[in-house]
Amino acid sequence: MFGDNSCPPPCNTLGFLQKNNSLDDKGRLAGQKNLLSCDNSDRDARFRLTETDFSNLFARGERHPLTRHIKNTSSFTGAAGVTLVSVSLVGIKSTEGLYLLPAKNGEEPTIQFLLEMVDILTNYVKKTFDRSTKVLDFHHPHQLLEGMEGFNLELSDQPESLEQILVDCRDTLKYGVRTGHPRFFNQLSSGLDIIGLAGEWLTSTANTNMFTYEIAPVFVLMEQLTLKKMREMIGWPDGEGDGLFSPGGAISNMYSVMIARYKYFPEVKTKGMSAAPRLVLFTSEHSHYSIKKAGAALGFGSENVILLSTDERGRVIPADLEAKIIDAKQKGYVPLFVNATAGSTVYGAFDPINEIADICEKYNLWLHVDSLVKQPQYIKTYIKLCRANSVTWNPHKMMGVPLQCSAILVREKGIMAGCNSMCAGYLFQPDKQYDVTYDTGDKAIQCGRHVDIFKFWLMWKAKGTIGFEQHIDKCLDLSQYLYNKIKNREGYEMVFDGVPQHTNVCFWYIPPSLRGMPDGDERREKLHRVAPKIKAMMMESGTTMVGYQPQGNKVNFFRMVVSNPAATQSDIDFLIDEIERMGNDL
Amino acid sequence: MFGDNSCPPPCNTLGFLQKNNSLDDKGRLAGQKNLLSCDNSDRDARFRLTETDFSNLFARGERHPLTRHIKNTSSFTGAAGVTLVSVSLVGIKSTEGLYLLPAKNGEEPTIQFLLEMVDILTNYVKKTFDRSTKVLDFHHPHQLLEGMEGFNLELSDQPESLEQILVDCRDTLKYGVRTGHPRFFNQLSSGLDIIGLAGEWLTSTANTNMFTYEIAPVFVLMEQLTLKKMREMIGWPDGEGDGLFSPGGAISNMYSVMIARYKYFPEVKTKGMSAAPRLVLFTSEHSHYSIKKAGAALGFGSENVILLSTDERGRVIPADLEAKIIDAKQKGYVPLFVNATAGSTVYGAFDPINEIADICEKYNLWLHVDSLVKQPQYIKTYIKLCRANSVTWNPHKMMGVPLQCSAILVREKGIMAGCNSMCAGYLFQPDKQYDVTYDTGDKAIQCGRHVDIFKFWLMWKAKGTIGFEQHIDKCLDLSQYLYNKIKNREGYEMVFDGVPQHTNVCFWYIPPSLRGMPDGDERREKLHRVAPKIKAMMMESGTTMVGYQPQGNKVNFFRMVVSNPAATQSDIDFLIDEIERMGNDL
């Protein structure tokens, strides 16, 4: 039917065009927008779907959900500014009728489909930043598995129509969590940066692989330049050194341990751990569990990851490190590696890098810094990152870059290739016409490697270094605001004294029923259950989310982190109000 | 200036509306589309950018690149079907004037910006499938680093305007490689699946993390159901078992080695490799280098990854495996793990899984299968995947899912948590209100884990199992077509005899100057240089891309793989024509 390329696609023969759009109408449309923004319609639409008769586009002579949906919403004229006149997707089937690209005549339905998707996504983006929407619409696993309002997660042998696919996409977002919502404080990776988002869309569209310059020339160079810039900010001379973007901070930390081992015992690469003495690693009892995981995975054994004691603020006590190094040596172990944390997960603590670096130099150990944040004022105040042998730097945390975006940075140039390369001839041919030192794949433990650099590069371009700094400053200010608000407030106890070192504010909410109770097991047990209960209520009401956890002998407490650029003081106020509202009767 | 929320955003006051769009115009627009598709304009635009006076939107009183661009292109009326009337982004600054969300009044510029980006991306998608466009516009690293036509890769402290950001995005795509182009055959991960692309856009917009059900409820369940479905297809009873999506096949293979070690020597997790005897791993000399990398990383040592001999078709010789197991045992090593490959990287060879499984059972070894493809006919013909203890399955290869999408599947339930969990209380609280067995994070070696499932789930919904099978069948047919075309053609020699087991077709092109030359070192040396030279010419002309490599004692040959759904017989013909055109005078 549509085999003739010169024939306009059948969609063009429909009545899809927008009427009455002239300059004279701008006031009307603008007015309508205000009307629309007051109702709770699901489609405060940027795109206008016209009242088209779709019946001749039905491939199977039946009405599909999307049709009804369009019929219901087509009376909305879109907000002014941009108007999209769209033909319906009804009738675009994967199995019959029109097909998507690369099919012949697939361009029209493809663009239509993508624009419908963008309509869904831009609506989601708008709602994400809208405080009148919920952070989440919580359901238990069994509820979602049973199929919420026809949302069927099961896969089948037969294809679904594209209308259903779009419905599936709406449902996926509907039952998900808005991690960019101004009141989502659950994780340090929060917020929805628009430039980062656009960068990810481009990355997906380019759909390539970082392993060779050959198929990712621009991205490989962006990675190289960005890593150099990051090394300059760390303070290594001329930004020289090595590095890669890896799929997350845990893998970056794992790289650091592998590289340290290769530096001191290169024969382990070929001969295994039996070629080395019994090695031990050191990290804070407050550090991220990934160092322990790396120790287990790489063959050191988790027991040989020795945990360092911390002060009341969660910072490693340097004397404890030195004592444990000496102790390990006396027991016949060989200390290899120290992980220092610049911004610990729970307390946001900064280990005293300078003192730790002194000890590492004295005992000839590799110093890695697992760094939450790169910010000049922190470098001055707490840390001398340049003294590290390697640094994990996660732009997907405080810098607000979409997940995944983590870099491992190493001071010694060329060591990653030494550590990891296997010289697979089928991938990394030495006889290419370009400078193959740009092929980075062989220094990774991955083969295919996702393009994580572009969104970060694009955000850096759009914000400048200064923009990242302003963002982090704003988050720190908000944390300070929270700290000041609750430190002396009735019903709150801080987990540690003094101003937090980073955005982390750790506190207990004490319900009225516990306020007069003397300290002891009963109170501890009751208090331990308060944060989980409040959190469950938050999730079920969908109003906000904040993390909690125990730490050492401290019962469950809230850990507030701020990294979301959408958050304001009013959101902090809201969180406190919610905690008190929910916790008052516990 | 725009501080009043009730006031329509200033963009609305512009003359942006499309004129003369009525039902009567559909023919004219449709006709124009045909006209447009004959010209080589950069903007065979889906979106219509109107001839708006943008001067009052300049924040800094100067013209920016995007303005000129819009001025230049605004005379194009868009293709029929969808028309987007867009206001310009000029004047939307990160530093002054309007701001993107989460700024007040940021909704309008945000949606505008995202739609501009979508315009760029949909144009790229169209060109990707257009055979009249190049696969790539090759430049050497130093050329791109010097800045092509103002494309500046360097980062700075100060922000760039959003116009410049959009120009940067266009340039990024311009100097990249179109991995979805019908004539891109360079890697097995090729093609641009529209559903997969849409899925990635949604994933980016949702921007969450797989580690807990709490913040990724829908995605966690999709992963669980999809993994179960995959295990059912492998043939494990009731689809029971374990698994995860990981950032690529190399990491999936690494998981398999870790899990095997944990199964036989669980104490290694805590005590390190010194708690185990000296372990050896086996894999084909033709297998992916990731097994060797895993051996090096995990502390076995790459020398303890023993390479198995293959037959002339690149398949492991089972007797060689058994001999090497016996030999290792005699030397005091403990054989632990065998990797069998179902679809090797270069030859596309399928190791004889059944015989290998027999040997693994006899000697009590872990059998892992690194599987290129999951397809019923292959399971019947070559492989009994269900006999494996673990399987790597990469949907980003033959199934055409965008990178990254790889799963590690394990027959034994619960073993991944046993192997990897560290029970970090700050992340995986046991006292949540929902069933925390859905929190998958602690069985991964990653902490943050990117959502790789959604695009795959969505493609599976849209295509059905049947759609994936049809796609793979089509790729196999095309490879067969290529094989039949060149097997007896003058100037071609096949690297191995017989019909390829998979889509891989490995061949030498023999230029006329070498055709009469007797075999020997001189011919081998010259032939070794032919494929790199042709490949360089391909890249410089930008017409097509295909991989080459040496293998063992075989000099450089072309390895053709077909996984791109856009490829047709005419593209195979084109490739052969190009090779002959470029190679004729070598």
UniProtKB/TrEMBL annotation, chains A, B:
Q: Which InterPro entries match?
A: PyrdxlP-dep_de-COase (IPR002129), PyrdxlP-dep_Trfase (IPR015424), PyrdxlP-dep_Trfase_major (IPR015421), Pyridoxal-P_BS (IPR021115)
GO MF term list: glutamate decarboxylase activity; pyridoxal phosphate binding
Its cellular-component GO annotations read: cytoplasm; presynaptic active zone
Requisite cofactors: pyridoxal 5'-phosphate
Annotated Pfam families = Pyridoxal_deC
Would I find Lyase among this entry's keywords? yes
Superkingdom field: Eukaryota
Q: Which UniProt keywords apply?
A: Decarboxylase, Lyase, Pyridoxal phosphate
In this entry, which stretches build a coiled coil? none
Chain positions found as N6-(pyridoxal phosphate)lysine: K397
Task: List GO BP terms, alphabetically.
Answer: gamma-aminobutyric acid biosynthetic process
As for family, the record states: Belongs to the group II decarboxylase family.
Q: How does it assemble?
A: Homodimer.
Q: Which PANTHER family match?
A: GAD67, GLUTAMATE DECARBOXYLASE-RELATED
What's the protein here called? Glutamate decarboxylase 1b
